[in-house]
Please model this.
Amino acid sequence: MELRLLRRIPFLKALPPVELKRIARIATEIAFRAGETIFSKSESGSRMFVVISGRIRIFTSSHAKKQKTFAYLDPGDLFGEMSLVDGHTRSASARAETDSRLLVIRKSDFKGLLFSDPKLCFFLLRTVSERLRQANEEIENLLFRNMLGRVSGALNALVGRGRRFRGGVLLKDRYTQQELADMVGTTREPLSRAISSLRRAQILDMHHGRYFVRDPRRLAELCHPLPS
Ligand code: CMP
Model:
């Protein structure tokens, strides 16, 4: 694997050159086509991944054909580390949403890297902490918000990666209503009703197939918990 590529990966760039060279020898690269499964929940884990290009969805499915998307991962993001650290099976499924290239590190090499460099451990801990924080927020959403608040919360979480546009924010990626429903953990009908309410209130709009948050302040206000 090329050193030039490794230097662009946040998970690895804190490493001294000698360590980076070691990774260049042990890491491999693998490509997935859009729609391909990388691994499924409950399999045993033997490798961790870093996204080089493309987009990966981390999700779980229920028997009722409902899906819950935990995260969309972009270049630089890592995944597949949990089962390697705790020894349990994969906690979620991973699928390539677009054609994707991934860096792959085997379990034994991954452990060796963590033991050899505290900076890597800290980076990993930070990543896991951010994900736990987000998961806590989602639990709060489920318990304390109605559907409108939950949909607003999911959209609000995407605002940070969008770009300023005509006084609002244009979301970075395109999302279908089904994809948004899977992020909220609901089905299409309630999602669609909430989107219509946001559009009627002139908080949300569409722009060339992408969601455009016309009024980010009011969207954020809708994310507050319901008064008890
Ligand atoms: P692992 O359990 O090995 O396989 C599934 C992976 O999905 C897991 O490691 C994490 O890397 C990733 N993952 C699990 N839950 C979340 C989450 N809530 N947000 C982002 N990534 C997650």
